[in-house]
Amino acid sequence: MNATTTGTRTLTIEREFAHPPEKVWRALTQPELLAEWLMKNDFQPVAGHKFNFRADPVPGWNGVTDCQVLTVDAPRKLSYSWADSGADAKNGVRTVVTFTLTATRGGTLLRMEQSGFRAGPDDRFHQGAQHGWQKMLGALEGVVARL
Amino acid sequence: MRHAPPDAVFRSLADPTRRAILERLIREGELTVRDITGESGVSQPMVSKHLAVLKAAGLVRDRRQGREAHYSAQARGLAPVFHWLEHYRAFWSARFDRLDDLLKRMDP
After folding, report:
1. Pairing of strands A50-54, B31-32
2. Where are the domains of chain A?
3. Which CATH architecture has domain A9-146?
4. Average of per-residue pLDDT across B22-26
5. I want to staple B73 with a disulfide (CB 3.0 to 4.6 A). Which of A9, A37, B25, B83 is the partner?
6. Interface mutation vs chain B, best among A22, A143, A144, most B CBs within 10 Å
7. Chain A: residue nearest B29 by CA?
8. The model's pTM
C-alpha cells in the first residue's frame, strides 16, 4: 500500500462576489493585494514560480507555507501547490490549491478547491491523541493564529 | 456524542477568554463556574455565557451536583480542530470574508 495512492480528500469552498472576474483575478494574483486578504507572499503569476506565504510563527507552526505555481489562465483558473515547510513538512499538509473564476450575472463565482488531504498523516487528531493534551494546547494557538 | 459543526467549534475558540477557560479545564479537570470565575477576571454571568457557547460547540460538558454545575473539557469535541481539512475549511471561509472586504475597497 502506498500512501500517495490511497484515498485523499478535497475541500471545496464556493462563494459569489459582486465584482467582475478581472477584478477578483487581480486580488488573487497581485502580491500586495493577495497579502491583504490571504498572507504575506512573494507570489508571481508565472507557472513554475516558487514562493512562500508567511504568517507570524506560533508554537506548533513555523508560519511558512511552501508553494509553486502550477496553472495561470487569466482570469479563469489559478493553481499552486501548498505545503507546510521545514520541520512542519513531515506531519503537515501537501496539497494543491485551485481557484476557478466563473462570470455570473451578479459578478464572479469563485471556487477554491484544496486537494490531496491524506487520511492518516494529515489528521492531527491522531497526533493530538498520541501526544496528549499539552500538545493540543500548543496546537490550539496555531489554529487560532491562522483564522 | 455527535460532533458540533466545525464552524461552531472554530468560532467558539476565536474568543481569547473562552480559550483561556477551556485551557484551564483541560489542565485542571472538573471545575465549577465559581472556580473558573475566581481567577478569570470576568464576571460570573459572563463565565456562564462563555461556558454555554463552549458546551454548544461540544467542547465542554456539565454535570449537575446539588446546586452547582461541574464543567469538564471534552477531548472529542476538539476533533475538527485537529483535522487539517476542517481546519482549512474555517481558514478559507474567514479569508473569503477578507477578500470580500478587499474587493469593496479596490479600484474597479
Report:
1. unpaired
2. 9-146
3. 2-Layer Sandwich (3.30)
4. 88
5. B25
6. A143
7. A133
8. 0.71
The pLDDT of B32-52, averaged and rounded, is 90
Tell me, yes or no, if B88 comes closer than 8 A to chain A by beta carbon. Answer: yes
Q: Which residue has the cell 465542554?
A: B60
* Close Cβ partners of A101 (under 8 Å, ≥ 6 residues apart): A21, A24, A25, A75, A76, A77, A108, A109, A110, A111
**Residue A95 forms beta bridges with which residues?**
A82
Instruction: State the best of B3, B99, B104 to mutate against chain A, taking most chain A CBs within 10 Å.
Output: B99
Domain CATH code at residue B23:
1.10.10.10
**Chain A: residue nearest B16 by CA?**
A144
For chain B, say whether A119 makes contact (Cβ under 8 Å): no
* Model confidence band, residue A123 (pLDDT cutoffs 50, 70, 90): low
Half-sphere exposure of residue A74: CA atoms within 13 angstroms, side-chain side: 13
Q: Look at A117 and B84 and tell me if their CB atoms are within 8 Å.
A: yes
pLDDT in tens, A65-114: 999 999 999 999 999 999 989 987 877 788 999 999 999 999 999 999 99
Residues in chain B: 108
